[in-house]
Fold Aspartate carbamoyltransferase catalytic subunit.
Amino acid sequence: PFFVLLSQQFSREELEGLCDTATAIRRLDRHRDGREFLLAILRGHRVMNLFAQPSTRTAQSFIAAADKLGATSSLVSDMRTSSFAKGESVADSVRTLSSFFDTIVVRHPDDEFATQAAWALYRSQRSIPVISAGSGKSQHVTQALLDFYTLRYSFYEHGGVDGKQIAIVGDVARNRAARSLALILTKFRPGGVHFVSPQNFQPDDELLGYLRRHEITVEVSHSLENTLRERGRDLDAIYMTRLQKEWDGGTAGQPKADAKTSELGAGDDYVLRTEFRLLVREDCVIMHPLPRINELPDSWEEHPGFVVWRQVRNGMWMRAALFATIHGAAEEIRARAKRLDL
Ligand code: CP
């Protein structure tokens, strides 16, 4: 079985292979014969998308990715319509779903849900791939994969991700996309990772320790304006994130007495204000996993490095590459793209 649960599970070679497969799928999809070829890759496969938290991009791009490869998809996005609402266990639920589906994609507020699902299937007679589409506050692996793909594309002619200075801004403590991206960067040699966050939402010691053990130069600061004034022109990429108010009170929907709340957080201090454009280079890559609230104003869309909508499109290509890789079709896809000279 192929379980996609942690962004650090991928080697550098596997990450580069996924990017190459995503590019091959993107190019084949533009070619009539290529499109026909892709539609046969997962014909007859069925993908279950089980989303216990809201999603626009991730859910729909998994469905679009399956479509590109000829698979069909189901989406459960309201857990009240499933037997979870009657108290059915994770193990019984996913074992039931594995009778009808070939891959399960799960998003859940519990950090451990996807892992529990994977273990339950691993121990069962019929183990099928499980892909995390967002696990609590800890991991958003496929977002990190598409973000890495976008960074690699942006730096393709400038030495790749190695040596690049990358700022990750906002509610890092509760943003699983930021956390997963930082973990993926350990497979490369970025020049530095600069976290800029409110003090109470700064990256935890576990994440910082992991990065430092992998010899990544890490800095943590609390003022976006000061960081940009001091080193804005050294930055090769800025990854913005929003304040994750849905976690106020602890685990979404399950308040905890010691929970941090957004009221202690950011205000407008972590907004990439339009006038900050003078503090960064024109080739600095501007990213955001979306959804955004006010932290990345529309005015940045005119900046040459703004790649947010490319990130969204890359989500579909990368998720298709992941399906293809899981089901053993990646090499065939890359070979076909090469044969068609794409
Ligand atoms: N980036 C992301 O996960 O967006 P959605 O919550 O809309 O899926």
About this structure: The chain has a mean pLDDT of 94. Residues 55-58, 134, 143, 289-291 surround phosphoric acid mono(formamide)ester (CB under 6 Å). Residues 308-326 form the longest helix (19 residues).
